[in-house]
Amino acid sequence: MLINIATTGYDMENPKRKNSLWDMDIAAVAGTDHVIESGPILLVTNEDMIVRACKSAGCGQNVLKTADYLDSIGAAVVD
Question: Is the pTM of this model over 0.70?
Fold first, then answer.
């Protein structure tokens, strides 16, 4: 994520980017060796940058989009 911000002209002054540093902190929990009571930590997010960063770092199996997560646990999406 940091490489993306540094190399693409990512506008950190844009109000939509306020949470980018927080997003990087959140993405850090998706590591393949991070566990709670021997169970892997699963990150559920619709932030495309986080999903891409996790996949690029080799821990894509630990991140799901919200709809995919809800489907995986058999929950219906309520509009």
Answer: no
